[in-house]
Amino acid sequence: RKEVEQDPGPFNVPEGATVAFNCTYSNSASQSFFWYRQDCRKEPKLLMSVYSSGNEDGRFTAQLNRASQYISLLIRDSKLSDSATYLCVVRYNTDKLIFGTGTRLQVFP
Amino acid sequence: DAGITQSPRHKVTETGTPVTLRCHQTENHRYMYWYRQDPGHGLRLIHYSYGVKDTDKGEVSDGYSVSRSKTEDFLLTLESATSSQTSVYFCAISEADAEATYEQYFGPGTRLTVT
Predict the structure, then answer these.
(1) Binning pLDDT at 50, 70 and 90, where does residue B86 land?
(2) Best residue in B87, B102, B105 to probe A by mutation, most A CBs within 10 Å?
């Protein structure tokens, strides 16, 4: 079983739609959680950290469920520019991160 | 954007030749990392550094070595390149913040092809 698992997609959604991604992690000792965005042939960029209480940044909302060991990312009012691969990332009791393989999102007009 | 550069950005080399990739940062961050990214795999950690001359192995370190003689530079060396090392290599940096989240910031990547 992979330490961090994501549905690879692709998720094909029209502009303006709401879309949600889930990610599960296997190590209950995980301490920090992140969503990164990666455009084709580019480096991953930090989208947001995920806090226990959940957090929101504009159209993006991240949630953490420690009991069920999953993280979610909700994107409202999708834009064409949101098309990318979204990486779920988990940190255990070190400074090293474990990356999921990513969920691909394609927003169409 | 974090001040991280990688060189070269693209390289084609032959099997058996040595290759060195350079990561340079201007953020004075303590931690630096080398990852590789391949289809079907998440980013996988090759080596990392937690200070000058302090390095350690990641999950896919075989065939790679690193050096860090200055805070700003982290070098990755393939002693004798093999076709299985064809990949995209990313460098990342982080620093312990108040929340100890260790957010990492990535360089633009190096595309390496071993023929």
Answers:
(1) very high
(2) B102
